[in-house]
Amino acid sequence: MSPLKWLLLAAGAGGIAAYLIWWYRTREEPVAGRYWAAALRGSALLLAWLILLNPSMPVTSEAREGGDAILLDASYSMSRPVGADGPSVWQAALDSLAGSDEVWLFGGAVPRRTSGDSLPDEPVYRESRLGPAVRSAAAAGARRALVYT
Questions:
Q1: Total domains present in the chain
Q2: Cα–Cα distance, 142 to 92 (Å, whole number)
Q3: Closest by alpha carbon to 116, among 104, 133, 105, 103?
Q4: 13: exposed, middle or buried (C-beta count within 10 Å: 0-12, 13-18, 19+)?
Q5: What DSSP character marks residue 94?
Q6: CA atoms of 108 and 128, how far apart (whole Å)
Q7: Torsion of CA 90, 92, 96, 101, to 10 degrees
Q8: Please, are residues 149 and 128 in contact by the beta-carbon 8 Å criterion?
Q9: Residues 20 and 74 grouped into a single domain
Q10: Do 22 and 48 sit in the same domain of this protein?
């Protein structure tokens, strides 16, 4: 969490504690067990405040710590030519990615991970679904995605 979120969490916890002390001293009857009720109410309010702050912890993979993910559109639309009599967009992408260590082919519901030297000669998917590939690359620890489409 960022320092600002920690500060907001501490300020919110202090505000919740001050509110509960005020409420239970001025509004509630002095009965046995009211401190347990105050603690439960405070816990619920603090949990709601924490959910609103949306804390997150970065998770990285040991194999790919913070690297770039190369995502290649493997849909049939990549077979169109670059120019009037030039190579296809797919062939131009293959030429530029020939020495890459790892390339994610996207287009279908499940992306494929392959090396840059073993890419297929032709596009293989009917659709261009980028979302599953981005999610898979992020789960593998990629911090940035380079998309070829």
A1: 2
A2: 24
A3: 103
A4: middle
A5: H
A6: 7
A7: 20
A8: yes
A9: no
A10: yes
Distance CA 137, CA 70 (A): 9
The answer to whether residue 8 is domain-embedded is: yes
pTM above 0.70, yes or no: no
For residues 36 and 24, what is the distance between their CA atoms, to the nearest angstrom? 11
- For 66-114, write each residue's pLDDT tens digit: 578 899 999 998 888 887 888 888 888 888 888 788 888 988 888 888 8
Q: What is the pLDDT of residue 59?
A: 59
Q: Is the residue at 16 inside a domain?
A: yes
Cα–Cα distance, 140 to 60 (Å, whole number) = 7
User: How far is the C-alpha of 50 from the C-alpha of 83, rounded, in Å?
Assistant: 54
**Helix 3-26 and helix 34-53: axis angle, to 10°?**
150
CA distance to 11, 35, 111, per residue, from 114 (Å): 48, 60, 10
The token duo for 95 is 């030429």
> Is 88 domain-assigned?
yes
Q: Are 102 and 58 in contact (CB under 8 A)?
A: no
Give the residue numbers spanning the domain of 35: 3-53
How deeply is 69 buried, as exposed, middle or buried, from its count of CB atoms within 10 A (0-12, 13-18, 19+)? buried
Tokens found for residue 86? 């030039």
Name the residue with higher pLDDT: 44 or 23.
44
